[in-house]
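Entry 14. Structure prediction run on the chain below.
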Amino acid sequence: MTLPAILVASMALIFTVASFWWLNARPGRLIIFSVMTFAGYITTQRLTIQVPVVVHNTGAKPRVIRALRLQGVDQSGKLFQIEAQTFQMKLEPSNDGMDFAHAFAVSGRSVVTKYVRFSTVDVPQLVPGASTKLVLQGLVDERDRWVGLKTLDIFVGILISSFITMSNNPDHWDSMTLQEGREHQEVVMKVLRERPAQSSP
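Output returned:
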């Protein structure tokens, strides 16, 4: 076989292998989109946040998200986590079609949307009327280490005791919405601040 023939055959083999890898085995990034609307409520006993988690897998290889949680730092400097409890059929608060949070696959070059309800009884100290930076973390594929997927800026500081759906854009709120949320959370935060003193001997 002549040298030109060897070169052509080699290039064809490289192209075939590379094409197969690109189309079938190439790992990609998981892109999470910002939250435009969300739902939730807050009391002195529980904080619940429900958000649409939209995941885009840029690669050809399927990725598996085994668990999700939100992590943040409250105004007292305390690190807190809010675990994913359930997947919902829609963003609107209801228990119709509720399923326990579980591992799910994101196929190559595809987008998956999950309406995830995060909840905790260890209520953090939030800033009434303000947004909170929450890092969406996940256990991805076979790794046992939580990785940050996206920093979400969510206006949980206007949540009230009723489970409601909200725009995450302050320009869409009316003055009553902001006032009601701020006043409710000022009461909640006051109770939370006083709680340790009440439980001490």
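The chain has a mean pLDDT of 90.
Filed with the rest of this week's runs.
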